[in-house]
Design brief:
It is a single chain. The chain has about 110 residues and is mostly helical. Helices cover about 75% and strands about 0% of the residues. The chain has 3 helices and no strands. Helix 1 runs antiparallel to helix 2 and helix 1 packs parallel to helix 3. The longest helix is centred in the C-terminal third of the chain and has 29 residues.
Length: about 110
């Protein structure tokens, strides 16, 4: 009566899966970096700026983790042009996040 039913998970190792892994790793790194920066700068920020940074610190990793997990498990279904589009969007998001971290780190020295 206690039968174990195993579902098949389609997992392909292709460009979309690699992009998904990059998004997952970057989401974890981004949340850690932003928490460190917010701890250092929390007293110097205005209330509205602090709220925006906290919102950004929570939302961006959630989006990246969700997108990364979808790409890891269902990326094999994407056409090459959609994989390229995901690559471009990932590069854009990572660039903007790194720029934000670098700018926040630069203001710390002032």
């Amino acid at each position: 009566m206690n039968d174990l039913i195993l579902m098949q998970v389609n997992f392909g190792f292709n460009t979309a899966s690699l992009i998904g892994f990059v998004q997952i790793i970057f989401a974890v790194a981004y949340i850690l970096a932003m928490i460190i920066l917010l701890i250092q700068r929390a007293r110097r920020l205005e209330t509205f700026s602090l709220i925006l940074y906290v919102f950004q610190t929570i939302i961006i990793p959630i989006f990246l983790l969700t997108s990364g997990l979808i790409l890891v498990f269902h990326g094999w279904r994407l056409d090459p042009i959609l994989q390229f589009m995901q690559f471009l969007v990932t590069v854009l998001i990572i660039y903007l996040c790194i720029k934000d971290i670098v700018i926040n780190g630069g203001y710390r020295n002032r």
